[in-house]
Amino acid sequence: MDGQELQEIAGASTADLPGADLEHRIGPDWDLYKVGGKVFMLMTEMPGHPVVILKADPDDAAALRERHKDITPGYHMDKRHWITVEGGGTVDEELVRELVTDSYRLVVRGLPRSEQPVDPQTFGRRA
Predict the structure, then answer these.
(1) pTM attached to this predicted model
(2) Cα-flanking dihedrals φ and ψ of residue 34, to 5°?
(3) pLDDT reported for residue 27
């Protein structure tokens, strides 16, 4: 999948996430996806190619970077807690959707319980 397709899949994945909002506050080249006022996904273009930036558990982020050459530390973000996903041969649609949901769940978990649009422990988990 190329970078454009990556961003399309990631953006479409947010349609099923309760309370997810899209903002363009940083500038025209940045899309910010938030839940409860907190960012869980950013999309932009790094020099020459579109990318998706997602929150990730630090241990999961390290494992993902080891397994996928198209996943690197978060661009302009905390390198332990954020990852950058690029289009390429090691990332497929299922993984992108899973990473978006995981990022959303991590941010929801940090919200006050009264502001959580879903239960972060169960939302999006496979049975």
Answers:
(1) 0.92
(2) -125, 160
(3) 67
Six-digit token pair at 39?
Answer: 């960012």
Q: What DSSP string describes 83-124?
A: EEEE-STT--HHHHHHHHHHHHHHHHHTS-GGG-SS-TTTTT
Contact 14, 22 (CB under 8 A): yes
- Report the pLDDT value the prediction gives residue 15, as an integer from 0 to 100: 93
Task: Profile the chain (127 residues) by mean pLDDT over runs of 10 residues.
Answer: 94 95 80 95 88 95 94 86 91 95 96 94 77
How many Cβ atoms from other residues are within 10 Å of residue 50's Cβ? 18
Residue length of the chain:
127
Distances in Å between the alpha carbon of 1 and those of 9, 52, 95, 96, 106?
10, 13, 12, 11, 26
Handedness of CA 85, 25, 58, 73 (dihedral sign): positive
